[in-house]
Amino acid sequence: MVRTNPNLIKEIKKLGAFDITACYSCGECTAICPLSENNFELPRMMIRYSILGLEDKLLSSPQLWLCYYCGECSESCPRDADPGALMMAARRYAIIKYSLGGIARIFYSKVMSVVSLIILSIIAALGIYLFKKPLDLTKFNPFSLLSYEFIHTAGLVLAAYIAIVALLQGIKMYNCIKHSALEGNLSAGAKVKNLIKSFFIMLFGEVLAERRYLKCDRKNRYIAHMTVFWGFVLMFIATTLDYLKNSNILGLRESYEIIKAINIEIFGVLARIIGIIGGLIGIYGSIYFIYKRLVKDDVYSEYSHVSDWIFLILISLGILTGFLIDIFIYTNMPLLAYVMFAIHLIFVFDLIVTAPFTKFAHLGYRLIAVWFYEYQKLKLSK
User: Which of 68, 73, 89, 217 shows the greatest Cβ crowding within 10 Å of its Cβ?
Assistant: First the structure.
């Protein structure tokens, strides 16, 4: 027996799908969608699930996460139902349902999202104030504001938090989609083989290149989307290199003096170069999306949910404060560098704590969905 949720479409509409009930299932959106394939009708299938209240069907469909909201379906809809907005809103709904205790709902409420960010920022500021050290005002040293041990411990705690929450929520999503994705009469060996093959298709096709996005006409959006993603990847690599340099995990400080100096300098230069490149391309992507939402010159940017704005603003401010730290260092203004470093840490803290429930979670769920979608395709091709 199929369980229905009569309030499903109402809840999804609150998350951005305002006009979707105007849909009369003509199929125009599916005909024009560049991602629609045999046996996988996008976005009409998701629209019908939503309107009929088939929550389990919606949450168990990997196809929900394939859409990039290029807007072609919304532009061609004869009823102005905006199917693309439905897909986006339904993914927000799924993020809430997959989250632990439904806590993600907080970050999709106009009031509570702002209140929660204010509270998180206050917590971060109090932590910096309570654990700060006497500042060395002769030159900027991040460990003069907060000790290396404190930053190291806080980083490990936040990393553990992200890993645990992401794992639990990923398992929750997996339990939702596994029956629809893995059902079939394949042998155990064939299933494992297809899962491994589809994983690498996902890895190289979606993670590294987002090749499905290339099917959409919005090539500028594709570039901006990729710069945000790769900007974060490069900044993560830079942070890791800087950590390796300072933590002495590689034993650099036990080397001979000349080799030690060269090794530490190499790690520092690499971290700086990679971080600057990552920051530049990341800020390009985030400013592009902010600009498009301000001018509203495309169907996808006519309406922006509060969660989109918060995410983009936090990214932009996090990167900009990072650049300002460097500017104040090079212009010999250590006090301003310390102030900007503290503000930077607050933005980073906000991004990390909210990551499992916002756009970062969206990325993780998309990768899981694409993995199982590719598995379904391999299974049907047999």
Answer: 73
